Amino acid sequence: MAGRITALRLQKHSERRVNVYLDGEFAFGLADIAAYPLRVGEWLADEKIAALQAADVLEQARDRALSYLSYRPRSLRELQCYLREREFSEPVVSQVLGHLQAVGLVDDLAFARYWIQNRGQFRPRGALALRQELCQKGIAESLIDTALEDYDELTVLRRAARKHARRLRQLPPEKFRQRLTQRLARRGFSYESIRDIVTDCIMQSEDDL
C-alpha cells in the first residue's frame, strides 16, 4: 500500500476524520489528530501506514470510551466489556483503560461511591442490594467495603418508607404493613430494620387520620 499522499480530505459525515489518498486513490481514513502531521506529497512506507492505522484504532477506542463515560461514571469492568463488544483488540482495550485510569477518569472506588450516593438519592437500596449491584459491575469487595463505610442505610430506609407509605396510606393496617414490607425488602433492606420503620409508618398514618 506504500505510496505518495496526493490528497487529505475531511470526511463528509465526520469532520473529525480525514480520508488519505495515495497516488490519486483513496487509501484509508484517520482521526484528524493522527492525520494532522501528514502533508500532501509525503511518501508513506508500509511501516508508517501500519503505525498510523494502529494509532487510529487506539484513538477510535479512546473516543468510544470517552463517549460512554459522558453519560455517567463507569466501572473498569463496564468499560472493558463495552470496548470488547465493539471488537477492539485486548492490547488496545488495555492501553485505553490504562490511560483512563492514569488520568483519573476510571476509578472503581470513586465509581462505587457515586453509585451508592446516586442510589440513595434516586433509587434507594439496602447495603446488601448495593453490594450485589457493585459486585456485578466488577468492583472489588475491599473497595465496596470502603465505599459503604459512611452509608447511612437507616436514613435511606426511612426516606424510602415514607415515599411508599404515602401511596399506600388508604390500605388497612395489615395490608399496609404487608405491602410496604414487601416493597422495601425487594430493595435489599433488612427485615429487622424494615419491621421497626413500617411500625413507625403505621403509627404516623394513624395519627394523620
Architecture overview:
There is one protein chain. The chain is elongated, with a radius of gyration of 27 Å. It contains 10 helices and 4 strands. The chain has 4 domains: 44 residues; 49 residues, Arc Repressor Mutant, subunit A (Orthogonal Bundle), CATH 1.10.10.10; 41 residues; 50 residues, no CATH class. A 4-stranded antiparallel sheet has the order 3-2-1-4. Helix 3 packs antiparallel against helix 4. It is an alpha+beta fold and 209 residues long. The chain starts with a strand and ends with a helix. It is 63% helix and 13% strand.
In N-to-C order, the SSE pattern is EEEHEHHHHHHHHH
Total count of helical runs of at least 4 residues: 10
Major sheet: 4 strands, antiparallel
Number of strands: 4
Q: What is the average of the pLDDT values?
A: 91
How many whole angstroms does the radius of gyration measure?
27 Å
For the termini, the CA-CA separation is: 83 Å
Estimate nothing, just give the exact number of structural domains.
4
Beta-strand residue percentage: 5-15%
User: Which class do the helix and strand fractions yield?
Assistant: alpha+beta
- Note poorly predicted spans: none
Spatial sequence of strands, sheet with the most strands? 3-2-1-4
Shape category: elongated
Quick recap of the structure?
Helices cover 63% and strands 13% of the residues. With 209 residues, it is of the alpha+beta class. It folds into 4 domains: 1-44; 57-105, Arc Repressor Mutant, subunit A (Orthogonal Bundle), CATH 1.10.10; 108-148; 159-208, no CATH class.
